[in-house]
């Protein structure tokens, strides 16, 4: 849901995971598949979520933007849309944790 919200913002060209995240995710998927015997949960590229005790959730979004738009405006909209999407999901799950979203623009096209 966070990846869909970020990708849906006009001006976002793509989401970009870091190399370390890709390697960790690949290793995690392989480990889960071997131990569980089932297909592991797929995480979205470019989105990193972590639960922070006392603070709620921290969501990091790494994205590539189109150069024809103001970076600050697109990043602000990504932050707002992702925070809304995650908050709605948490409420549906019976939790109202605080959501902090950090947007990193890795490059423009």
UniProtKB/TrEMBL annotation:
Domain of life: Bacteria
Native organism: Streptomyces goshikiensis
This protein's name: Asp23/Gls24 family envelope stress response protein
């Amino acid at each position: 849901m966070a990846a869909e919200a970020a990708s849906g913002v006009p001006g976002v060209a793509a989401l970009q995971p870091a190399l370390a995240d890709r390697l960790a995710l690949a290793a995690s998927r392989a480990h889960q598949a071997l131990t569980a015997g089932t297909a592991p949960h797929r995480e979205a590229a470019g989105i990193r979520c972590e639960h922070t005790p006392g603070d709620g959730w921290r969501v990091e979004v790494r994205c590539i933007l189109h150069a024809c738009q103001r970076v600050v405006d697109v990043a602000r909209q990504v932050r707002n849309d992702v925070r809304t999407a995650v908050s709605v999901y948490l409420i549906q799950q019976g939790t109202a944790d605080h959501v902090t979203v950090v947007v990193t623009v890795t490059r423009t096209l």
